[in-house]
Every structure is written in structure tokens, then in C-alpha cells.
Design brief:
Number of domains: 4
Largest sheet: 7 strands, mixed, barrel
CATH class of the largest domain: Alpha Beta
Strand order of the largest sheet: 26-29-30-31-34-33-32
Shape: globular
Strand content: 15-25%
CATH superfamily of the largest domain: Aconitase, domain 3
Radius of gyration: 26 Å
Distance between the termini: 41 Å
Structural class: alpha/beta
């Protein structure tokens, strides 16, 4: 595949660009060792330094930038880095909107006098369609085929857009639906670790439109999640602006006890690292404990980097990484490149080097301290030892609902009567790349299922069990080990290759089960091997959600309830009504190792990925237009040109103070992007549902908010509509309700925003700590911008969402240190003035003045870098990029007064 890339090999200081011979091939490399200080930089900073060196142009990346990073002082104020990723990864929920934006930018570029053809990827880009398929059908042999057919039926318009994009955008590769999950495919197939292109060799780096992009950190590839707006800019050759991050070294010691899984380790680490406040940091793992972790174990840990809050979680390149690359079928030539280049550049793990690294801080974690555990019921960091899971669950129910234990009578399809009570498990899902990319975890689940079946155990009829691995390789090695059939007998038949339950595409429950639990208002549970369990994310009926390893998912499915002590009570009965305990069916680690050794290797990966880009017959039958410009359809309810692109003027409007703004919503702590812009089902009674009904679309064809992300009319009507969102302006209500301060009326968020817009009133949002947690969901920023939100004032921001706000021209402001809305006396009924915005045209101030009623204070401006300020002056990232492409803005202007030395975390 040919890429219209920028020049990878620019000028370099004498002696830093030189030749390297590997197995008879001669490459040019950009060495860093001659730079003073480079020999004590952490691994991640070495990768960033090489990136700067390779892209030095004397303008945006200067010699001073290079030397400043080489001599990085962890205690000094952070400094801006302009980073050029080698690749961009996208999943369909966030990636298809990127392509729609590029399509709209082509037309806008022509309108502004530029060349539409200039809007095309300048770096290699992969889009994996993994978030759309739903687990509608489960527990039957043809579940996969039926779900695939429903997926194509629902998403045909979106997939036709992808077929057009494949031919329209040079350098874009699309992995068809139901092939795998983006991060697992990246880990097992797409990641290079080291890239050789046009005679130059350099580290593989990646940014992705999903917060779990750091999974590939497990094999030494530096990468992290970004918003789709940043990804669109990166695709078009714009560097990403970031501040030198804190880099924390985490030494691993000890060895996990028998029976402890990689899931147990990562759930424990997630809780522990949250307590140590690694928000926004680059983590680097090292130490003697590395020897106890396979590359897949390391990837399991790195995958949950967003859950413990860091930007990246890098494991070094070592012999285990090379072994993994060989096992997954990478060619021997690539293995030689990885080893030789990593040794040459100082990226190969050397404990003596690590001891001398300049870290912002150091931590130490003992792997032998980990015990079998789950996390829930609402956050990934809420880890509970398995032995304490039952009382913790009972306490959570008591705190949430109080009163006596509730139950309901349910009659199964075979006529048997069952009592369903609080804690009943309605969903048990082996899903998500977090754990399905780990062969040891999947083999443990398969062996546990085999032992359960052999003892005569049966699945609980009220549990919806699903198996949705992240790649076809999983089914290859499960079948090769003779375990696939046993999982299917317990209800874990293959439903899809995709995120499914992990993203909320869990599909419907059996209607009678759903009716019984709703009528009795039961505290129902989902148990999944995913990475997020936020309230309302998995399924509307599953109020409580627990993360667990794949074998524990099977065990809980057999038990059918969370109100049980799996360490002491039987899961159920087998043949002859004999009680069966978890210890009876838990595999010996040697069995697991033998199964992995016998069935996992290059042959299984070769079979699994043989038809990666081909797709099924439905995919191949889709039309792939040849037009340079996308043929928009005015009647499409899925794909419409986004107004934040089509309305971009030739010149940026002047920056002005925000006067007389009203509060659209006032929110508490830990509000996620799921709360702001839900991904799940569309309620027919909601503004979005009424809009679709007005188009003549019946509710059964509404699909989901996530699937309709390329239609702004649906998404703006769904903002703040998550059924579990609590708006403090309207206590006692949930979902998308607010107060229209102009009339005093309680109405929908959308209706209030329309009224404010018609009255010319700007809007602000009030939030608490960790505002914008969770997925890198662009519409949590795009939607508010379209509704007229000019600023978000919060106690603190999650990294990607803060960037998305800036990228949409929304001011992210933090309350003064130690203050919040309550301490400042803010009720949300005030009119807000935000003063000093005009200063951004000249410099990057630290604070802006806020007046609200009787309160007046200096809010901390969270535009963190000069590059971000440059984008904000243009109204956001896409306006800046479009004007650069149409040649109406210089490529690298900066205000001389700007300082890149402050960024409160």
C-alpha cells in the first residue's frame, strides 16, 4: 500500500543520522545516544526524542526542542512536544465519524479554494469495524451467523461509507465487520514494534480513537488513545501537541500464586494505581516480576491503562516480546529488525539502565500479593477479593435500595419454576480484547467449562451467556485444544468477533426474564470479562456490573447469582445431584500451560487471519463508489455532513468574553462520557426517538446512539440522556432533563438548549472531579459545542475529554485549587460571565476570571499547550487543519508571549 507521507528523514545533528546493517540490509536510523542526557532517559522518552529528531524542521520542531527533551528534568515545569505518530488506529464508532469529517472537509476545502485531494491520510491508518455488532442471539449454534446478518442489515449505510472511503482515501485500510477487536488485531497482527520504510528504521508508535489503544504498550509499542478530532488531524499530517508527561517507573517483583490470573493482577493494579494518582502519566514497568508475565499478560495490564488513569503503560522490548511476535506469525526478518534496532537505540530492556533512569517517581508492586478477585459493581477500580464478593454485593444492594431482599417467580421455557432474587445474574459475557487476547485466560475458561460439563453441570436458564472474542484466532486455538464445544454446552457459543457486551451491545434478555426482574425491581447483575462496568453501560436491566476473568465469568454463570461465596459454597449440582464447588473445576496451571503450548502458535494465527480484509459475502457485495467527493444522501438517517465542518468560515472569528451564560446542566463527580453522550439504545419517548419516528423509522430499527454517530441530529438530541445521569438542577430526576432558566420550566436538555440558542444565550456546564471519564467519545464534546456550550467548569478533567473540548472550541476551566461549585456558593441558577477570553488571541493565560451571581473567582484555564491554544484560536482542531490545507494559515505560527510551562493535572 502506498502512502502520501511527509518526509520521514529530515536534517539531523552531525553523527545522529547514520547507517545500520541488519541481516544484510542497510537502513538509516536517527540515533539519540550522542545527545547529552539521552542515556538516562526512560524508554518512552527515548521514543519521543527519536520522534523529535526525525521530524526536526527548524520551525515547529527545533534543535532547542530536541536538546530540551534529551536533558529532561522530571522536576521542571512541563514543556510542549509535537509528536508525529507512525500509525493511526480507529474503531468504527469513533473512526467512521473521522472519515465523515474528512469527506466533509474535502468539500469545505474546495469551497475555501484548496485542493480536495489534499484531504487524505498522510500516515498509515487502519479502521477495524468492531463496535457495531450486537449479541441479539446467543446460546445457539447459528448465533454468529444470525448476529452478523442483523449487523449488516442495521448498518448498511455506514458500511457503504466505509467501502467508499477505502478507495477514496489512499493509505486507509478497513478491516470488515465481525473480524475482530481493534486492539487485539493491533497486538496480534498489525503492530510492527519497529518500522522499516523507505530505507529508514524507527520505533512503531500509534495513536488510536479508543482509550484502550495502550494495549499495544504490552509489546513495547508506545501509543495511547486520542479523540477522533485529534486523530483526524494526525491523519492529515498535523503533529499532536502534548506536554512532557510525568514518567513513573513501576518495578514488578514476586510471582503470582497458582490460580491467580492476569485479570486478577490488572484489577488489583487498577485499584492500587488509582490510589497512587498516576493520572496523565506515562508508566513504565520493569523489574524481576516481568519474567512471570507473558507478553499477553502484559498486554492485559496495558489495556486497562485508562482505568487506572495513566496515558500509557509501557512494557519494555525483551526476549518475551520477540517470542510473542514469533508465536503470532511475524516473519523472522521482522524479529531481527526488532532485536537489532531496539538494542541500537537503547529500547531493549536492561535492568542496569532502568536503575539509572530519570523518573518522576518510582513505585513497586509485589505480584505475589494478588488474590483472585472481581471488580464492581460500578467502577473498574472497585476491586473486591473473591472471598469478600458476597458481603460486598449485599452491602452495595443495601446502600442502593435498602429494605428486605426482593425476589420474583419466573417460569423457564421448559415449564420449570425458579425464584429470581436480588443478585440474579442476567448476563455472563466473555468479551473484550482486555482478556480474550490472553490465551492462558481463554484456555482456563475452556478447561473449567470442560470439567463442569464432565461433572454433569447445566447452564442456568435465566443467564444470557455470550462468547465474543477479539479475533478468530481464539476460536482456532480453543477448537484445537478441544475446548470450544464445552463452552458452547454451557451457553458460551460464539456470538460475534467484536466488543458486544463490553461496549453495551449486549442485546436483549429473554423477554420473560426482563419482565420478571423489572416488575420486582430486582438488583440484577452482569458479569463480564471487559474493562468497564459503569452504571447503565452494559444493559438497562443490569444495574450492577462486575468485571471478572473469563473462567470466573463461566463460574458465575453456573451459579446464576452474585449472592454467593464462590470460595465456600457450591456453584450448583452435577450428575446425581452432587454439589460442585469452584475448586472441583478450576484447572491446574500445568493443564493451562500445556493447552496453550499445544494449540497456540503461528499456525492458529495464520488460519485465523487468512481472510482478514476479505469480509463476508455481504461486505463484498456493498457498492464502492469511485467519486472523490462523497455522494451525501439528504434522506439518510445515518450519515449527514457535520455542521461543525460545513460551516467553517475562511477566517477564524474573533475571540470574545462569554457574557450572560446560563448553566445547561450541573453534574457531580465521576461523570463519564457515557453519561454525556450515551452509546446505547434510543428510547422512543426521547427527543432522539421522536426525531427518528418523525422520519418514519420504527423503534425496532432505531439501532443505537453509537451507530448513529454520523447523524448530528440524533446525537445532539441524545446529549446528557443516559438514564443514570443525575442533573443537580433537577433533583430526583434522571436522564436528559434540566431547567430552562429563561422560563423556569423543567424540560429536556435538547429543548432547553434550542430555547437558549434562539434567545442568543451562551451555555456552560458545571461538573465535579474526573469530568469526562471513560471512553474517548468525541460526541461528548461535539454535541455540547453544537448546542451552544462555550465552557465547562469542573473540578478536574479526564485527559482525552479535556483535549476533545479544546478541539471543539470549548473552554475547559477548573475551579481554583481546593474549591468546587458548592464551596463557591454556586447553585447553577446564576448567569455566568467568563472574562479574559480575548487574551488567548495574544498569549496563553493561566487563569480566566469568572463572575456568577455574588461569586467571583479565577478559574484555571486547561488549554495546556501552545499548540492547543493555536487550535482554539481557530475555533478548534478541524477549522485549524482545514485552513492549513487550504493554505490560508501558516503551518507553525506561535504567539511569542506563550509559555508551555504550566498544566495543572
Amino acid at each position: 500500500m502506498a502512502y502520501s507521507t511527509r518526509q520521514e528523514g529530515g536534517p539531523a545533528p552531525s553523527g545522529l543520522r547514520h547507517s545500520l546493517s541488519i541481516a544484510g540490509d542497510l537502513f538509516q536510523i536517527f540515533g539519540i545516544h550522542a545527545l547529552p542526557g539521552a542515556d538516562t532517559l526512560p524508554y518512552s522518552m527515548r521514543v519521543l526524542l527519536e520522534n523529535l529528531l526525525r521530524h526536526e524542521d527548524g520551525d515547529r520542531v527545533t534543535r532547542a526542542d530536541i536538546h530540551a527533551l534529551a536533558s529532561w528534568d522530571p522536576a521542571a515545569p512541563p514543556r510542549e512536544i509535537l509528536f508525529h505518530p507512525a500509525r493511526v488506529m480507529m474503531q468504527d464508532y469513533s473512526g467512521i465519524p473521522c472519515l465523515v469529517e474528512l469527506a466533509a472537509m474535502r468539500e469545505a476545502c474546495a469551497r475555501l479554494g484548496g485542493d480536495p485531494g489534499a484531504v487524505t491520510p498522510r500516515v498509515p491508518a487502519d479502521l477495524v469495524v468492531d463496535h457495531s455488532v450486537m449479541a441479539d442471539v446467543s446460546g445457539v449454534p447459528d448465533a454468529f451467523a444470525r448476529n452478523a446478518a442483523l449487523d449488516h442489515e442495521r448498518n448498511r449505510e455506514r458500511y457503504e461509507l466505509l467501502r467508499w472511503a477505502e478507495q477514496a482515501f489512499e493509505g486507509l485500510r478497513v478491516v470488515p465487520p465481525n473480524t475482530g477487536i481493534v486492539h487485539q488485531l493491533n497486538l496480534e497482527l498489525l503492530a510492527h514494534v519497529v518500522i522499516a520504510r523507505d530505507g529508514i528504521i524507527y520505533p512503531d508508535t500509534v495513536v488510536g480513537t479508543d482509550s484502550h489503544t495502550p494495549m499495544v504498550n504490552g509489546i513495547g509499542v508506545l501509543g495511547w488513545g486520542v479523540g477522533g478530532l485529534e486523530a483526524s488531524a494526525a491523519l492529515l499530517g498535523q503533529p499532536l501537541s502534548l506536554l512532557t508527561p510525568p514518567v513513573i517507573g513501576c518495578e514488578l517483583t514476586g510471582h503470582p500464586a497458582d490460580g491467580v490470573t492476569a485479570t486478577d493482577i490488572v484489577l488489583t493494579l487498577t485499584q492500587w494505581l488509582r490510589e497512587h494518582d498516576v493520572i496523565g502519566a506515562f508508566l513504565e514497568f520493569s523489574g524481576p516480576g516481568l519474567a512471570a508475565l507473558s507478553a499477553a499478560d502484559r498486554a492485559t495490564i496495558a489495556n486497562m491503562c485508562p482505568e487506572f488513569g495513566s496515558t500509557a503503560a509501557l512494557f519494555p522490548i525483551d526476549d518475551e516480546v520477540v517470542r510473542y511476535l514469533r508465536a503470532t506469525g511475524r516473519p523472522e526478518r521482522q524479529l531481527r529488525l526488532v532485536r537489532s534496532y531496539a538494542l541500537e537505540l537503547g529500547l531493549w530492556h536492561n535492568p542496569a539502565d532502568v536503575a539509572r533512569f530519570r523518573y518522576t517517581g518510582r513505585l513497586s508492586f509485589d505480584l505475589s500479593s494478588v488474590v483472585t478477585c472481581v471488580a464492581g459493581p460500578r467502577r473498574p477500580q472497585d476491586r473486591v477479593p473473591l472471598s469478600a464478593a458476597r458481603p460486598a454485593f449485599q452491602q452495595a444492594v443495601a446502600e442502593a435500595h435498602g429494605g428486605p431482599r426482593r425476589s420474583a417467580r419466573w417460569v423457564s421455557p421448559d415449564g420449570a419454576c425458579h425464584e429470581l432474587a436480588d443478585g440474579v445474574i442476567v448476563i455472563a459475557a466473555i468479551t473484550s480484547c482486555t482478556n480474550t487476547a490472553n490465551p492462558a485466560l481463554m484456555m482456563t475458561a475452556g478447561l473449567l467449562a470442560k470439567k463442569a460439563v464432565e461433572l454433569g453441570m447445566q447452564p442456568r436458564p435465566w443467564v444470557k451467556s455470550t462468547l465474543a472474542p477479539g479475533s478468530p484466532v481464539v476460536m482456532e486455538y480453543l477448537a484445537g485444544a478441544g475446548l470450544q464445544a464445552y463452552l458452547a454446552k454451557l451457553g458460551f457459543a460464539l456470538v460475534a468477533y467484536g466488543c458486544t457486551t463490553c461496549i453495551g451491545n449486549s442485546g436483549p434478555l429473554t423477554a420473560s426474564v426482563s419482565r420478571a426482574v423489572r416488575d420486582a425491581d430486582l438488583a440484577c447483575v452482569a458479569v463480564l470479562s471487559g474493562n468497564r462496568n459503569f452504571e447503565g453501560r452494559v444493559h438497562p436491566d443490569a444495574r450492577m456490573n462486575y468485571l471478572a476473568s473469563p473462567p470466573l465469568v463461566v463460574a458465575y454463570a453456573l451459579a446464576g447469582t452474585m449472592d454467593i461465596d464462590l470460595t465456600a459454597e457450591p456453584l450448583g449440582t452435577g450428575a446425581g445431584a452432587r454439589p460442585v464447588y469452584l475448586a472441583d473445576i478450576w484447572p491446574d496451571p500445568r493443564e493451562v500451560a500445556q493447552a496453550v503450548q499445544s494449540a497456540v502458535g503461528p499456525a492458529a494465527h495464520g488460519r485465523g487471519y487468512a481472510r482478514l480484509l476479505r469480509g463476508d459475502e455481504r461486505w463484498r457485495a456493498l457498492p464502492a463508489g469511485q467519486d472523490t467527493l462523497y455522494p451525501w444522501s439528504a434522506t439518510s438517517s445515518y450519515v449527514q455532513p457535520p455542521p461543525y465542518v460545513t460551516s467553517i468560515p475562511a477566517d477564524p472569528p474573533p475571540l470574545r468574553d462569554i457574557l450572560g451564560a446560563r448553566v445547561l446542566v450541573s453534574l457531580g463527580d465521576s461523570v463519564t462520557t457515557d453519561h454525556i453522550s450515551p452509546a446505547g439504545s434510543i428510547d422512543p419517548r426521547s427527543p432522539a426517538g421522536e426525531y427518528l419516528s418523525g422520519l418514519g423509522i420504527p423503534p425496532e430499527r432505531f439501532n443505537s446512539y453509537a451507530a448513529r454517530r454520523c447523524n448530528h441530529e440524533v446525537l445532539v438530541r441524545g446529549l446528557f440522556a443516559n438514564p443514570n445521569l443525575r442533573n443537580l438542577l433537577v433533583p430526583g430526576t434522571r436522564g436528559g432533563r434540566t431547567v430552562n432558566h429563561l422560563t423556569g420550566e423543567v424540560t429536556t436538555v435538547y429543548a432547553a438548549a434550542v430555547a437558549y440558542r434562539q434567545a442568543g444565550v451562551p451555555l456552560v456546564v458545571l461538573g465535579g472531579n474526573d469530568y469526562g471519564m471513560g471512553s474517548s467519545r468525541d460526541w461528548a464534546a461535539k454535541g455540547p459545542a453544537l448546542l451552544g456550550v462555550r465552557a465547562v467548569l469542573a473540578g478536574g478533567f479526564e485527559r482525552i475529554h479535556r483535549s476533545n473540548l479544546v478541539a471543539m472550541g470549548i473552554l475547559p476551566l477548573q475551579f481554583p485549587p481546593g474549591a468546587d461549585a458548592q464551596s463557591l456558593g454556586l447553585t447553577g441558577t446564576e448567569a455566568f460571565d467568563i472574562l479574559g477570553v480575548g487574551e488567548l488571541a495574544r498569549c496563553l493565560p493561566r487563569t480566566l476570571r469568572v463572575r456568577a451571581g455574588d461569586s467571583c473567582f479565577d478559574a484555571v484555564l486547561r488549554i495546556d499547550t501552545p499548540g492547543e491554544a493555536e487550535h482554539f484560536r481557530h475555533g478548534g482542531t478541524l477549522p485549524f487543519t482545514l485552513r492549513a490545507l487550504s493554505r490560508s494559515v501558516p503551518a507553525g505560527t506561535r504567539c511569542p508571549a506563550e509559555q508551555a510551562t504550566r498544566a495543572p493535572r
